[in-house]
Amino acid sequence: MGTFIVIEGIDGAGKSTQARLLAKWFEERGYDVVLTKEPTDTAFGKLIRKLVLTGGREGIIDGARISHEAEALLFAADRAEHVAKLIKPSIEAGKVVISDRYFYSSLAYQWARGLDLEWLIDLNRFAVRPDLVILLDLPVKESMKRINGRSIKTEFDKIAELQKKVRENYLKLAERFPEMRIVNALASVEDIHNDIVALVEHELFKK
Ligand SMILES: Nc1ncnc2c1ncn2[C@@H]1O[C@H](COP(=O)(O)OP(=O)(O)O)[C@@H](O)[C@H]1O
Ligand SMILES: Cc1cn([C@H]2C[C@H](O)[C@@H](COP(=O)(O)OP(=O)(O)O)O2)c(=O)[nH]c1=O
Predict the structure, then answer these.
(1) Domain that holds residue 141
(2) Which of 89, 119, 151, 168 makes the best surface tag, with the fewest CB within 10 Å?
(3) How many domains does the chain contain in total?
(4) Tell me, what's the ipTM?
């Protein structure tokens, strides 16, 4: 059996940067690595980008934004395909799977949208549990600085407010899910990478 590692955190926390570095670290040690992300690049992911992640007309059906419940179901559908077609087969083939976001994103974000946490957990029960989840934690102000210049999808303050709630949710989830480990993402890229490697070595190779 392979290994399944997930990187989580608010937008701009450094997930994709660290996922890439961790993938390289495993590759240099001879592992067969699958680096992947959610939302995926499949038709489901494209539908999410069209219906959920745009502030424009595309996210509107019959004059109203799509509901938060429909959002949660779209993310779950995308994830179901991701698990069935890529994650499960890769783990079974003995590979190291590294995913930039997973169902913890649905819990943190859709919960922040006001949906019921227990419903979200039930909805995502099909999703195989990772061996390790790295939660990159940093203040929203810092993440905002990092993504400044990226296309802002809605009004800035509203995003900051949502991200604050999402950050708090992640920290609460880390108390509930023992596979989640908090890493201080305020450090340099290199220091964070070293912290992640130390966790991987400690958590996955201790036996
Ligand atoms: N530790 C860090 N310190 C400063 N800037 C960083 C750090 N890690 C990543 N960045 C930069 O911040 C931005 C967001 O990083 P990224 O890895 O894309 O985050 P995410 O995938 O979580 O949205 C990028 O421009 C990246 O180069
Ligand atoms: C996977 C997932 C992401 N999201 C949110 C987090 C991000 O703000 C947004 C898009 O993720 P992001 O990582 O920014 O992907 P991309 O850069 O490809 O658009 O979707 C959820 O709300 N629920 C989920 O289940």
Answers:
(1) 3-204
(2) 151
(3) 1
(4) 0.96
